[in-house]
Specification:
- The chain is globular.
- 38% of the residues lie in helices and 23% in strands.
- Strand 9 (199-201) and strand 10 (204-206) form a beta hairpin.
- The termini are far apart.
- A five-stranded parallel β-sheet has the order 7-6-8-11-12, sandwiched between helices. Strands 1-2 form a two-stranded antiparallel ribbon. Strands 3-13 form a two-stranded antiparallel ribbon.
- The chain is α/β, with parallel strands linked by helices and 300 residues long.
């Protein structure tokens, strides 16, 4: 292959137009509409984002869409005075609208034919069960929960369960080491860890629980003892479990109610902490808040 032919691969001029049926169900049907919306968001962001937020469920309306302050550092708050809950906007409002039997999660695993389909009603029940378990462990509004899991439906369920009770979650990439997990648990002062025994990527099994045990030993050496560790038995393998600290997911959730009243959270309440990779220094925790993240990420 010549240099000229390689260079030609960097340029792509073809356009693949969507079908009319696909356009009809799109949130933004064409580029002209997109450009108009984008221009409005730049010219009048207060009005634009206020209109976008109106389609969500709010327990109390906001007094102001955005509020900028420049004291020690620039800070912006979104939907000041508003109260909402992200899990309700992801699940309950769709169930209440009669879409409970619609598919919410379509999951395909590592092996051919390894699939699961969960409806909105299914996910809501599972989220409420996990939220009730966390509450029974003393986890509440503002408490931090670490999540170190493979890409399985229970990962999404864990995020939404934390959001339902106002707990702040931090997701740690399943490929990170025990040391990286320890650093994030300590920095965020997490009291609970949600994890799994492991997962298979291609032909290689990744033993998450082994890394968890190493990380929690390192946390203990640093003077931070984790209260509870919930382990999803994803791969059906034997694993060591520390009595009093480690609990199997299915056993712990057995008998938990499938309904859980959501916390009415301030729009500016913390939702999750996402850490940078740490490749150029110590990992830095980036805090996302509830209302602003919800609206910009999940515009209906």
């Amino acid at each position: 292959m010549t240099a000229a032919s390689i260079e030609s691969l960097f340029h792509e001029d073809r356009r693949f137009e969507p079908s009319a049926a696909f356009r009809a169900q799109a949130l933004i049907p064409d580029m002209a509409t997109y450009e108009l919306l984008y221009a409005r968001s730049i010219q009048d962001p207060e009005r634009f984002w206020g209109e976008m937020a109106e389609d969500f469920t709010w327990y109390a309306p906001w007094d102001k869409v955005e509020d900028w302050t420049f004291a020690d550092a620039a800070q912006v708050r979104w939907f000041v005075g508003g109260k909402t809950n992200l899990s309700v906007n992801c699940l309950d409002r769709h169930v209440d609208a009669g879409k409970g039997n619609n598919r919410a999660i379509i999951w395909e695993g590592n092996q051919a034919g390894e699939t699961r389909v969960l409806t909105y009603s299914d996910v809501l029940a599972l989220v409420c069960q996990l939220a009730n378990l966390l509450k029974s462990w003393g986890v509440g509004r503002g408490d931090r929960v670490a999540i170190y899991m493979p890409m399985i439906p229970e990962l999404a369920i864990a995020l939404l369960a934390c959001a339902r009770i106002g707990a702040v979650h931090t997701v740690v990439f399943g490929g990170f080491s025990a040391e990286a997990l320890k650093d994030r648990i300590l920095d965020a002062a997490c009291t609970v860890l949600l994890t799994a025994d492991g997962f298979t990527r291609g032909t290689k099994f990744i033993p998450l629980k082994e890394e968890v045990d190493r990380a929690l030993d390192l946390c203990a050496q640093a003077g931070h003892g984790l209260a509870k560790c919930l382990v999803y038995d994803h791969s059906d393998r034997d694993m060591p479990m520390t009595e009093g600290r480690d609990w199997f997911w299915h056993q712990a959730l057995r008998g938990m109610p499938v309904t859980c009243p959501p916390e009415h959270l301030d729009a500016d309440d913390p939702l999750f902490i996402l850490y940078t990779s740490g490749s150029t220094g110590k990992p830095k925790g980036v805090l996302h808040t509830t209302g602003g993240y919800m609206v910009y990420r999940f515009i209906p």
